[in-house]
What does this fold into?
Amino acid sequence: ATIVFINVINLIIGIIIFTNSKKKSKGTLSSYRKKMRIFGMIFICVAFYRSIFVSSYLGQLAWFDTLANSALLIRSFAMFAEISFAYLIMSALLQVNKDLPILDSHKSSKILYFFETKTPYIFFALLSVSQVFAYGGTITKLHLLFAIEETFWGLAFLAITPLVLIQLKKIYSFKDDKSKKELRMYRIFTVVMAVFCIGYGSYSVFYHLPIEYWPEAISQLQMVNPVPEIRWGLSAIRDSFMIVNETKDYATWGGLGFVIWHSGYFTLCGWMVLFFMNGPRKLDIPS
It folds into this structure.
């Protein structure tokens, strides 16, 4: 109920940002800001839906006994939301590079230049490709595919961490009041991204992948009779859409681990997206 309430508020705020941004920028709206608000609303709407129809893909667990809570249906919605999330971050990182050109000293370093120019695209590509494995895992119940998906997520954020830290240092190197005002949105953006990248990257490398996902994936592959049963073919696709196993049992959902993941995904990420919808950019401050 708490998560649903938060997402109702997020949806209302998202609609307000979307509407106000469209009105204020009518006729002069840049392609960048237009895409940021559209992709942001996609994520906010999906998060609102998923906060109500809670789902777990492997066991096809559902909060409600209805096809609206179908694992495959929700996985399809999640694909649009996660690609939107990836696009918002990639686009904002590239906008920082556009407003604050890369230093000549960095251009002369192949490694630094690569991190500053290519990693936003690598980030987007990794999160986009991860969707294929998430779909495959939802249909086949092969835990290995989910482990690969989560590995791609970890690699994606680790890939952009050097760029985020470079941008953070660059933006905070401006000490005069005018620059601070012009770069206000970027100051917030880079701090948020630095905290998220370091936090998520550490969580992924030291806990999520080595303790949660890969041991389970290897264990399932070693079973004579895998649990859950690995499925293939059209029947697997049909069942992943049609079968919903309604339960509200705390332990069945995964206990505290699931609560932490579910709460974080549908609050922190939503708040980040609401900020991204404003289009982080260099502001025009009169002299």
About this structure: The first strand starts at residue 55 and ends at 56. The chain has a mean pLDDT of 92.
